[in-house]
Write a structure and sequence with these properties.
Elements (H helix, E strand, L loop, with lengths): L5 E4 L3 H13 L4 E4 L2 H9 L5 E4 L2 E2 L2 E2 H11 L4 E6 L4 H9 L4 E4 L4 H32 L10 H18 L3 E8 L2 H8 L1 H18 L5 E6 L2 E7 L3 H17 L12 E8 L7 H17 L5 E3 L8 H9 L1
Parallel strand pairs: 1-2, 1-3, 3-6, 6-7, 11-12
Antiparallel strand pairs: 4-5, 8-10, 8-11, 9-10
Helix pairs in contact: 7-8, 8-9
């Protein structure tokens, strides 16, 4: 009950005091408001679970506040507590988003029972939302490495590329592949291969900044989005992780040395029309790194189309 958040909006001081005393005896604490303006301040003070809302208030009808709340906070439980008891008035209360409607004069024990019932619903909603958040987190996480997965990467790439493209901000994509991974699996077994992937993932996570987005792209391939990072800085970062992996100990019964190849593509160093083009360029650079012997970093080699006219003017001077 200590964590339960209740708000009472009631302009009749004697009624408010009666409810407050009875609820305190049951272990509940109420935040009190006597008008719509004060109620809005109370609602903005922090989370709440149940709102006991009178209709006839000095500065308006509680139904208007109920409409406002439902537009932005669909999960709170609202109990209309009012002397308006006609059928149409009750229907209006439910129509504005109230969950329950209690008419005055009321029996305090019945009001408490209705609030308890509302709190049970609120707790079920919280549990469901928490479960949904956990499921969403699991759906975006690679179970082997605990990095973000391909689904999460695709979503993040679209968002970050759009931001970089719109505001002409630097964004670099590093595509990373574990060299000769099939040989590791064949020579040491798939459990050892899984351990190598986890070790590489830990190094990538350790070497990255909080603002970077590190993910397992698929198989033995990883991808890192480096916001606000130009090509030269990304080369330094890529060389750092390459060296870290090359000198890392994988553990007993594991290959003595594991290496990675890295391909980089950066905007606006090169102008890409879409996020897919950025990925394709980084992939091309990665394949070039492998063709040149692996355990190396390569950059994409596309023309800087938007800078070409400026370069031409410089050549004419």
């Amino acid at each position: 009950m200590a964590s339960t958040q209740l708000i009472l909006v009631e302009d009749d001081a004697s009624v408010a005091r009666l409810i407050q005393i009875q609820f305190q005896r049951e272990g509940y604490a109420l935040r009190l408001a006597g008008s719509l303006a004060e109620a809005r301040r109370r609602l903005n003070e922090g989370p709440w679970d149940v709102l006991l809302l009178d209709r006839n208030l000095p500065d308006g009808d509680g139904i208007n506040l109920c409409h406002e709340i439902r537009a932005t906070q669909p999960h709170g439980y609202i109990v209309m507590l009012t002397g308006m008891s006609s059928r149409d008035e009750k229907l209006a209360g439910f129509g504005c988003g109230a969950d329950d409607y209690v008419t005055k004069p009321f029996v305090i024990d019945e009001l408490l029972a209705r609030v308890r019932a509302g709190l049970r619903i609120v707790e079920l909603q919280k549990a469901l939302m928490a479960t949904n958040r956990r499921l969403e987190e699991l759906s975006r996480t690679d179970p082997l490495t605990a990095l973000r997965n391909r689904r999460a990467f695709d979503t993040e790439l679209a968002s970050r590329f759009e931001h970089a493209h719109r505001y002409a901000r630097p964004l670099t994509l590093a595509m990373i592949d574990v060299d000769h991974f099939k040989r590791i699996n064949d020579a040491y077994g798939h459990p050892a291969g899984d351990a190598v992937l986890r070790c590489v993932a830990d190094i990538l996570r350790k070497c990255s900044r909080q603002s970077d987005f590190v993910s397992r792209y698929g198989g033995e391939e990883f991808a890192i989005l480096l916001p606000e990072t130009a090509l030269f800085e990304s080369l330094q970062f890529a060389e750092k992780i390459r060296a870290e992996v090359a000198t890392a100990s994988m553990g007993e019964g594991m290959p003595e040395r594991v290496t990675i190849s890295v391909g980089l593509a950066s905007t606006p160093h090169t102008v890409f029309a879409s996020a897919a083009e950025l990925v394709a360029a980084a992939d091309e650079a990665l394949y070039r790194a492998k063709e040149k012997g692996r355990n190396r970093v390569e950059c994409e080699r596309r023309a800087v189309t938007k800078r070409a006219p400026y370069a031409s003017r410089l050549m004419q001077v």
